[in-house]
Amino acid sequence: MYEEHRHLTWMLMLLFLTGVLCNMWKVKHQQRLICAVKGSSVIFLCSFQNPDNQTVRVLWGHLQPATLKARLISSSLRTLFTRFQYIGNTYHNCSLKIHQVECSDVGRYFVRFNTMSNRPREENAPVLKVVDLTIFMSKPSVKEAIREGDSVNLTCMNSCDGGKISSAYTWFKNGEPLHEGAALYLRNVSPTTSGNYTCSLKTHLGSTSRVLGIDVEYGPRNTTVLVQPPLGADPGSDFTLICSSHANPPRGELYVVQNSCR
Ligand SMILES: *[C@@H]1O[C@H](CO)[C@@H](O)[C@H](O)[C@H]1NC(C)=O
Ligand SMILES: *[C@@H]1O[C@H](CO)[C@@H](O)[C@H](O)[C@H]1NC(C)=O
Ligand SMILES: *[C@@H]1O[C@H](CO)[C@@H](O)[C@H](O)[C@H]1NC(C)=O
Ligand SMILES: *[C@@H]1O[C@H](CO)[C@@H](O)[C@H](O)[C@H]1NC(C)=O
Ligand SMILES: *[C@@H]1O[C@H](CO)[C@@H](O)[C@H](O)[C@H]1NC(C)=O
């Protein structure tokens, strides 16, 4: 009876020690809540405590919030998906870089060693939020088109900034650099203002952009009138007046003048 009790005590102690040793596999993430703009890159800085400085295989998993399914996305051994790059090592650094962040990358991330079931103690396991770059346009009338002489303001934002305009933005018009800063004021617009305006957000990990087409409407100009058949060619017949001009949206007008009596 006494022997049996001692045996049990040893067993419990062994289990306890195994538990303690297993718990020495600790992973520490630098930041828990991480926000990234769609199309940009993000780094999850991570370190782990490795009791014997053994070489391990580090695995990264992603828990998709919609399905609650875990998927293996990266391994220190080999690349599984090019967008998920393991940038750590095999003895203390478990950092991961995600390139070209997509909306489906949202959710919780976790680290495992050697096998997916080997669960270490994790501190600050990262949760990724993905937002889009947004262009706000302020113009005289929300519903109506932009007309000659109007003033239009374009503001580029991303909600990772928490509404603050702090990121480094550059505006391009048809690919040409136009302005540094989040807000672009287009005063007294003319037909030449029309074009594609790109807002580009630059971070230390790369850049991402969004395009908005601006189309300035203007009334007919350079109007020409063509008479067919030419006047005097056949006096008394009907003739057609073709009125052509440059306008946006294009407007062409055709008048048929009945000249003869019927
Ligand atoms: C742990 O191992 C790595 C390579 O296997 C080595 O570079 C590093 O110096 C070792 N660290 C310690 C504390 O022994
Ligand atoms: C881990 O590796 C990343 C990428 O190389 C590096 O930026 C980071 O400073 C490293 N962290 C530590 C604790 O060594
Ligand atoms: C554009 O921004 C300027 C400066 O903030 C402001 O004075 C103007 O009223 C704005 N125009 C429109 C159409 O929102
Ligand atoms: C603007 O972008 C649209 C759609 O990509 C393209 O069809 C158009 O040619 C572009 N306009 C200019 C002036 O680059
Ligand atoms: C009107 O015609 C002139 C001369 O041909 C040309 O330079 C100008 O661009 C035209 N204006 C428009 C709005 O097409």
TrEMBL record:
Residues 126-217 form the Ig-like domain. The keyword Signal applies. Pfam families: Ig_2. Residues 1-22 form the signal peptide. Keywords: Signal. The keyword Lipid metabolism does not apply. It comes from the Eukaryota. InterPro entries: Ig-like_dom (IPR007110), Ig-like_dom_sf (IPR036179), Ig-like_fold (IPR013783), Ig_sub (IPR003599), Ig_sub2 (IPR003598). PANTHER family: B-CELL RECEPTOR CD22-RELATED, VASCULAR CELL ADHESION MOLECULE 1. This is Ig-like domain-containing protein. It comes from Astatotilapia calliptera.
